[in-house]
Design a protein that fits this description.
Elements lengths: L7 E6 L9 E2 L10 E6 L2 E6 L5 E6 L5 E7 L2 E9 L3 E6 L4 E7 L6 E3 L7 E7 L7 E7 L7 E3 L3 E8 L6 E4 L4 E6 L2 E6 L4 E6 L12 E6 L6 E5 L3 E6 L8 E6 L5 E6 L5 E6 L4 E5 L6 E4 L6 E6 L5 E6 L3 E6 L4 E6 L12 E2 L6 E4 L4 E6 L4 E7 L15 E7 L5 E7 L8 E9 L4 E9 L6 E7 L10 E6 L4 E8 L9 E9 L6 E6 L5 E6 L2 E6 L5 E6 L5 E6 L7 E6 L3 E6 L4 E7 L2 E6 L6 E6 L4 E6 L8 E3 L7 E8 L17 E7 L4 E5 L3 H4 L3 H9 L5 H19 L14 H8 L8 H12 L8 H28 L18 H12 L9
Parallel strand pairs: 9-13
Antiparallel strand pairs: 1-57, 2-3, 3-4, 4-5, 6-7, 7-8, 8-9, 10-11, 11-12, 12-14, 15-16, 16-17, 17-18, 19-20, 20-21, 21-22, 23-24, 24-25, 25-26, 27-28, 28-29, 29-30, 31-32, 32-33, 33-34, 35-36, 36-37, 37-38, 39-40, 40-41, 41-42, 43-44, 44-45, 45-46, 47-48, 48-49, 49-50, 51-52, 52-53, 53-54, ...
GO molecular function, one term: RNA binding
Subcellular location: Nucleus, Nucleolus
Pfam families: Beta-prop_WDR75_1st (PF23869), Beta-prop_WDR75_2nd (PF23769)
Length: 836
Amino acid sequence: MVAPGALRVVRCGGSALRGARAVFSADCKQVGRGYVLFASGDFVKVYSVNTEETVRLLGGHADLVTGMQLNPQNHMQLYSSSLDGTIKLWDFMDGIPIKTFTVGPKLLALYMFASAEDLVFVVIPKKGERDTFQLVSVKLTKGAGQDLEGKELSVVLNDVGASMKHIAFGREGTYVVSVKDVTLQVYFFKQKLLNRFSLSALKTKGGDNNFSCVVCHPVEDCIATGHADGKIRLWRNFHLREEYTYSTLHWHHDIVMDLAFSVEGTRLLSGGVESVLVQWHNESSCQKDFLPRLGSPIECISMASDGALCCTLHTDNRVSIINSNLRFSRSIQGLIKSRDVKTGLVVDPRTKALVLNGEPGHLQFYSLQSDQQLFSLDIVQRQYIHQAGLKQSDLVKVAFSAQGTWLATVEESEEVTDPELQLKLWFYSEEAQSFTLNTRINTPHDNHITDMCFRDMDELGEDSLILVTTGRDCVFKVWVMVEDTDPEAQQSVSWSCDFVGSYHNYQATNCCFSEDGSLLAVSFEETVTVWDSLTWDLKCTFCHPPGNIRNICFGRLTCSKYLIGATDYGFLCCWNLLTCALEWSAHLNVVVLQPDPLSEYIAAVSWLSKESSLFVFKPNKPQPTYIQRNLCKEKILLAAFVPRDEPEMISSEKYLWLRKSQLFFLTDTQELMTLSTKSLEERLTPSSKQLAVEESLPVTPFSLLLGKHRRQQAQEDIDLGKPVVHTKQEQASPAVKELLHTPAHVLPSASFLCTIFINSLLISKENKSAEEVADEVEMESEKAEDDSDEEDVTAMEQEDTSHMELLGEMTCKLSKSQEKELRKIRKMDYSWISAF
């Protein structure tokens, strides 16, 4: 258990949308009502088919979601399985978990059908045997509570495949089919009969009979299997072990990734690495249609229950929605997982989107809020050929200016000895709402470019914009903007080299500017050099052998006088720029060093003994502010601080480093994660956020007119001195909102709600204005004065009356009772006199 308020590692996006086959809602054909559900990491995402927006985020599983099925008894509910060993029942329209069934072992796939009431089928690891799995049935117990046990397990098939695509149920659950390697098993439930069929394991003439997927015909006794060599086999008469037959369909040149029958069974869909969806008619190889150029290999195919739509899940985290006539409808693009994220994690200052490698030769701009790709920018602008062994150009470096108006990219070929390099400068066009190419520089360095950064400060204007690149050719280069004198040039400015620096012929590896832009730090193997950015004079050098410098960064704000560096040999060093001396050092194998742009904090991620640990510190203090060991199971390769729109309210002092920015990191499996102090319930869409959508809707002209009239009337009352009565807004009451917006089928009884509703209508006495409070305090003081006046009245009567004779010569001193009466007169409203 995680203590309340503790920091949690959250899988926030980028998770594969192909963890399980997608599921369409039963009413997907209705306009505005169609939904498609995907497994994405620990969550189930509910997308609108029409708007492509994320409508709901179903979260509650503690591990990856592996299976989803609509409840056969209620199509507004969804069952989901997970590696955490639980099965959850959801009301996915409202995002409410209804039941949680704890099974125990890891659940790798989930199946169910209408005839097996209260029974679900799951794939689990076999006890005591490694990489061996079995299909079991689980009886879902009935009970009043929300957390129930699902311990009644019955083994159906042994030695099955772990993938959801390796098992299928036919003829409304009369039999189940399993494929693994070159063996096909068919188990008939009523007869309790198991038939096993095997193909040849020999790979002759390019053939490979290994099974890759299996589906069953919805009406007939027919099984379709996909194979590693691209063939599709249609099996019949499998009730008899010796008289089975199969026919073959062949178009795919490589493995068949998935298959799906249409609702009536007259069409068969297949997909593979060719990025082409093939539609086979009437089980004939002569009648087939194609939907090509879907972008990436097809991983899964799902069909809607009414046959109006189907969707394909792709290896690049894209979902394609396709009509029944095989016409492309729309797509949902998640975080593309490229082969290698060479650009690192970069934040776009304009959109606050994460920018990194996408499709080959492209930059993807990924929205953290919607977990979708905003757009993709073609940098290389060359056709990528999917063929092994070809040396092709790819994107390796990217940097933004501080305002996001300029983008610098570096592309290079895969040649090791003589790479083809290009440095491109892009300018953001407000008219085109995209980046346009401004300058292309061929061979900016004689060897691979290792790093680059902008110097961009608002107060210095355009002249301050400088780009620095470092390379393995042992130099760093300074690039500046110059006016283009060519009259035929379309651009008014371009970029050119202004300065070339080096240090003892060492390879330049990293570079960064100080916060004010006055200093440039460049690392040359084991040495860090500091240069004046105006004169390009070498100011000082720092060295902490052994090991080359892996990362460097300047401190910020109150820590701007420090320079931080990490070495290959596991040292984290902090140098003082004023004294030119080592301030402190720590023995830490830092693989990621990331400063927060809005605070003094710096995050360092270490990798030791197959464990990623996080250290957050300020350069002026050698003791870390926060330490999180065993951050995640995977190795963290990249990290980035993303500024928040508004500072977050954080109660704990040790988490203050997360107040202005949020830390995101990418693992070696390309899972995007973050750290959050909020609980799961707070992070998911609460009712207040759902109500905010309704409250943010545009008001009607009548409500605008009525609101204006009320404001004018209130202002007139204030001008006339009338007391303004502040009535309580019943609609703003949480109790009333809960009553009006909670789904009817989960509301408690009316007798229970009556008391809460009536109390919400009452005006609280605690909400008093400052004037009312002052009046009450004054009345209490007046009561005390009345008591003292009664005690002093006798003494006043016996007072000397000689002062009355001098009335015309001196100011009369009022008694306390007279002062009290005068205060009352001052408070009276005489504004009615102005009417005369």
